[in-house]
Amino acid sequence: MVTSERSETPTSSHWARSSAGAAAAAIQEHYSIKGLPGGRPLRLKQKKSSKSMIPKGSSLRGALSYNDKMLHYDASLTAAEKAGLVEPPLKPLTAQEWERAKLLSDGRVDEICSICREKYRNPSQVILACSHTFHERCFLSYLRFADATIARCPVCRTEAHDWTTHDGGLNAWRSRSATRIQRCWRGHRVRVRVMEGLPPGSRLRRRYATQRLKATGRRIEKLGEARRAAVDKFLIDVERSSLESSRMLRESLAAFESFRSGVESTERGPPPVLLSGPASPSWLHEAVGKALERGDCECPICYDQLSTIEEVEAPRELARRAVTILSCSHLFHQKCLDSFESFRVFEKRFCPMCRQEYDREPWPL
């Protein structure tokens, strides 16, 4: 009787008892492959296992058939797991087991992904062996950032050894959306039909019209508030920009005044300006005085420095840096003013700064 019982035992247990050395070698190989303590030398213990349960890239096990999963499962088993010396990993689920898991998930009406808390509005949904569902992208991102050797469910923390695609959440969202649309349409039809049957001037008709007018007024008020906030924000930005421009202008003028006072002290007065002669117009004296009092140092068109004759060395540079004064006392480079006048639309000439008609005369600073 005992002999018959021994003959009925699995061959794996008989192999384990018959060869202790082979069993020890199989366990050592299992520890080495799985990366468990005791299988590798101390210097290599921190190296990650190459047979991780987490998929690489965007590949999902749901794209494989059951036979392909079983082939991959059998190839991943070690000799110790095949011999029954250690507990083997969980097998992939069959089609019947997946049907039960999907029915359990649909019974809970899972419409929201537990990771991103968004509804299943696209078909990229996966279901785990524990019947919990997630977005495909969310689940892969969770596995990538979890950085664990064994994939686990984010909700129940059970081992996620197998998963596949599922559209239960998408179907529930579509059904709920269709129900909402139908409810709104039926309500609109009933309200229109009831209003058509009421006599003009009735109390219920006036009440319905009052509610509609209030709703329309609230929408218009919200739209006006949004536009008012946008206009206020725009005006605040314009005011801030103008204040910043004024500050920069004041700083520039202060720096120019300090530079001008230093130059006048070294040269003992402003440089002489020859304005006498029959060709000098009557407005030139007053315009030069205003320009010197204002302290213009930049051309308003090109924003480049207005150089004096002493600062210009070559004759070509003198022609390019020639300065023109207008009857309104504004100063420009001669080339800049010529280019500005070439683009004029009207016959009259207007100053680019003050928009007044002007006469021009060459005058070096």
TrEMBL record:
UniProt keyword Methyltransferase present: no
Family annotation (Pfam families): IQ, zf-RING_2, zf-RING_5
A molecular function (GO) term: zinc ion binding
Domain of life of the organism encoding this protein: Eukaryota
Residue intervals of the RING-type domain: 113-157, 299-355
Keywords: Metal-binding, Zinc, Zinc-finger
PANTHER family assigned: RING FINGER PROTEIN 32
Identification of the protein by name: RING finger protein 24
Organism: Perkinsus olseni
Gene behind the chain: RNF24_1
